[in-house]
Amino acid sequence: MRHRLGGLSAFTVAWQGIIYAVKHERHMKFHVFATGAVLGLSWLFHIPGDRLMFVLLAITLVLSAELFNTAIEKTVDLAMPTEHPLAKIAKDTAAGAVLVTAVFAIIVFIYVFAFPLKEWLGF
Ligand SMILES: Nc1ncnc2c1ncn2[C@@H]1O[C@H](COP(=O)(O)OP(=O)(O)OP(=O)(O)O)[C@@H](O)[C@H]1O
């Protein structure tokens, strides 16, 4: 079944999805805050372009995974409002995907910022 966009462009509806997740999803709020903090640190420490690409990749992966996770949660809630083992598996594996990207982001953070932070703190 195909819905008309009702005059809205594909970009507008995609943006509405992102705004919904940022406004209503606790974890998405944290990820957006962390994104701002990490980009601020990158600017402060003059992180070179090749390392900055790792930072941007990690941010993209985490935010995308969180958006997919929200989409899966909402779809499961729509299809299965009561408890069901398959609903649990769907939600838990979606959350697992976010966790995998978050671990990658932590590794990137350590790789990129450990040395500049150490120098800044005077160790
Ligand atoms: N319909 C369901 N049937 C069985 N287990 C469920 C169901 N809905 C949720 N759960 C279990 O509860 C957990 C939490 O689900 P919930 O929908 O509250 O998402 P969440 O992880 O709290 O995300 P958020 O905090 O972003 O809302 C799921 O990971 C799953 O283990």
From TrEMBL:
It is a multi-pass membrane protein. One of its GO terms (molecular function) is metal ion binding. One of its GO terms (cellular component) is plasma membrane. CDD domains: UDPK_IM_like. ATP binds at residues 25, 73, 91-92. The active site is at residue 66. It holds the Pfam family DAGK_prokar. The chain crosses the membrane at residues 30-46, 52-72, 93-114. GO terms for biological process: phospholipid biosynthetic process. It comes from the Bacteria. InterPro entries: DAGK, DAGK_sf, UDPK. Keywords: ATP-binding, Cell membrane, Kinase, Lipid biosynthesis, Lipid metabolism, Magnesium, Membrane, Metal-binding, Nucleotide-binding, Phospholipid biosynthesis, Phospholipid metabolism, Transferase, Transmembrane, Transmembrane helix. It is found in: Cell membrane. Its cofactor is Mg(2+). Its main location: membrane. Mn(2+), Zn(2+), Cd(2+) and Co(2+) support activity to lesser extents. Substrate binds at residues 10-15, 66. A divalent metal cation binds at residues 25, 73. Belongs to the bacterial diacylglycerol kinase family. This is Diacylglycerol kinase. It comes from Paenibacillus swuensis.
